[in-house]
Amino acid sequence: AGCSCGTVTATATATATPLGGSAGTGNSGTAPQAHGTTAAPATSQLDGDQQRPPSPQPAHARSHTRRRHRASRRGRDEGRARSVTVAECVTMPPEHLARFVGASTAQWLGRFLVGVDDRTVQPKGPPRSLSESKNLQVSARTEADLNTWLCTLGTLICRRVLEDRERHRRWPKNLVFHWRDVRGENQFRTRSCGAMPMTSSVGGPDSERALADLVDRVSELAVARFRQDVPGTFVLSHVGMTVTYHTEPVANKQMQNFMQKFIDGGGGGGG
User: Fold this and answer.
1) Strand, coil or helix: 117
2) Using an 8 Å Cβ cutoff, are 105 and 221 in contact?
3) Residue 179 and which of 46, 103, 164, 251 are 20 to 30 A apart at CA?
4) How far is Cα of residue 22 from the mean position of the Cα atoms in its chain?
């Protein structure tokens, strides 16, 4: 009977004793283990699932990932190797070009690269302005030089105005004169001369006499506006005239920026 009680007491004590503790009853200082087994603490079993490190990736999965990365890198390398320039496309046979963009696209692209485009041109309506300008190889320095160039520009611009009237049944609203004086800061200026004069009825609105009369009045307006800004001497390297079909004159800054780019690019002649 004493042996049985001792066994029960030892088992109960071992179960209730925390890790590293000792039994409080019995003849021995430590609690014996029942049936020769070690009792693991409950906290160790609970925390084990949360603290267990992730299992390593299987070998076959790692191998598959490496093969996928190598295939992706190989595809990128082949794509870079297949890239071609526009110059190469121009001289490339259509069947070779089709390997990159497909047969239908290659046919259109091959024609486009050599300037063949059979699409119908869509008209954008009549122009909003007409312009004539000249870069002078010999600078205009005298009143006679200025009048000569204004007569030349006036004749060109007025002929275009008359042609535009026949085509679109309209008349320009404003006349603009622009010039470049190479003295000082080499300043470029654009000035509105007011409303565009109407043609004279003498000899008919489309006669040469009516054209000459219109050119004279356009030149007078341009000279008068020019002299408001430059009353003294001048050295002009560029002169130009523009007529606009807007209700209001073209903004000076906008016109000045456009003509400045035109002159810097070496443009000249009719615009």
Assistant:
1) coil
2) no
3) 164
4) 82
Neighbouring CB atoms inside 10 A of 54's CB total 5
Q: How many residues does the chain have?
A: 271
Residue 106 token pair: 């290659």
Q: What is the spatial distance between Cα 271 and Cα 259, in angstroms, rounded to a whole number?
A: 10
Q: pLDDT tens, 50-83?
A: 555 555 666 656 666 666 666 566 555 554 445 6
What's the predicted TM-score (pTM) here? 0.49
223-238: pLDDT as tens digits: 999 999 999 999 999 9
- Positive or negative torsion for Cα 243, 246, 249, 253: negative
The Cα–Cα gap between 219 and 195 comes to: 13
DSSP code of residue 36: G
| Token pair 């009549």 in the structure block, residue | 126
Distance (Å, rounded) from C-alpha 42 to C-alpha 232? 108
d(CA 201, CA 213): 10
Question: In the chain, what is the greatest distance between 2 CA atoms, to the nearest angstrom?
Answer: 151
Radius of gyration of the chain (CA): 47
Phi and psi at 85, nearest 5°, equal -90, 165
Asked whether 224 and 131 are in contact (CB, 8 A), the reply is no
The answer to whether residues 180 and 256 touch, using CB atoms and an 8 Å cutoff, is no
Beta carbons within 8 Å of 101's beta carbon, 6+ residues apart = 109
Q: Does residue 237 contact residue 139 with C-beta atoms inside 8 Å?
A: yes
153: enclosing H helix or E strand: helix 143-168
